[in-house]
Amino acid sequence: MFENIRYEKKNNIAYVTIDRPKAMNALNNDVLDELFTAFYEISKDDDVRAAILTGEGKAFVAGADIAAMHAMNANEGRAMMIRGHNVMNLIETIEKPVIAAVNGFALGGGCELAMACDIRIASEKAKFGQPEVGLGIIPGFGGTQRLPRLIGKGMAKKLIFTGEIINGSTAKEIGLVEEVVPAEELMDAAEKLAANIIKNAPIAVGSAKTAINVGYDLDMKTASSFEIETFTAPFSSEDKTEGMGAFLEKREAKFKNK
Question: What does the alpha-carbon distance between residue 188 and residue 171 come to, in Å, rounded to a whole number?
């Protein structure tokens, strides 16, 4: 089904691994299409409660495929950027939490891909950056929009205008990643986080993700109203009855997969 990524499921976790190590997992149209297919499948699969996205080899994603982009005209480049935005927006908006396990270089489109995920855990070997201006272009997969929202406008401008590459510890200091771990502990840390998430009610986790994402760009009054409405679905669910009942009965809750 896939030629450029690996897709596996285990213990209610979906694993998506970009597998083009000879190209440093660079994003081209084929990779973007396969990522979209994989995450669309994740969004519809009730057995999947969380996803982990990572890369094979030394890179998470070293960027977009420059060799492919070099030959593109403006219309072709725009079409590729639309493809990329469709992937990033899907990852960001599906109700399943997505964890980026950043194993190595996350540059350009790779940094943008990581930012589309809900939580980022980085290996000590990880490197982050948006070096597009050195290639005569700008970040085109959401980097000019998500980076300021994560680390602030001034710091985002500094990184984008200079094309500076930073390590994992610096990325954590400025709020680009949530955790930095030794390389050999990266997947264990991502799996532990996913396991802690999926112990909770799936409808509540999904509703919380939606409430955070939508409310973040609204004024407080409108965001508060949206939270009230988003609260309704999990409050009227079987999971709410089970979760509160388990708490009162001092037992472990047993939530359904949907």
Answer: 20
Strands 119-123 vs 179-181: parallel, antiparallel or unpaired: parallel
pLDDT (tens digit, 9 = 90+) per residue, 185-213?
A: 999 999 999 999 999 999 999 999 999 99
Based on the residue annotation, tell me whether 132 is a catalytic residue of this protein.
yes
- Collapsed DSSP state (helix, strand, coil) of residue 73: coil
Q: Do residues 214 and 195 lie in contact, with contact meaning Cβ atoms separated by under 8 Å? A: no
User: Within the chain, where are the H helices?
Assistant: 29-44, 66-70, 74-93, 109-116, 143-151, 153-162, 168-173, 186-198, 202-215, 220-235, 238-248
Q: Is 128 helix (H, G, I), strand (E, B) or coil?
A: strand
Q: Which two tokens stand for residue 65?
A: 């495929």
Residue 164 is a catalytic residue: no
> Cα-flanking dihedrals φ and ψ of residue 84, to 5°?
-60, -45
Residue in the structure block whose two tokens are 């400025």: 174
**How far apart (Å, rounded) are the C-alpha atoms in residues 19 and 54?**
9
Q: State both tokens at 239.
A: 């999971």
Rounded Cα distance between 96 and 46, Å, is 10
Strands 105-107, 179-181: pairing is unpaired
Name the catalytic one among 34, 56, 112, 191: 112
Annotated active-site residue in 132, 184, 229, 252: 132
Lookup result for tokens 């994003």 = 27
- Which pLDDT tens digit goes with each residue over 126-148? 999 999 999 999 999 999 999 99
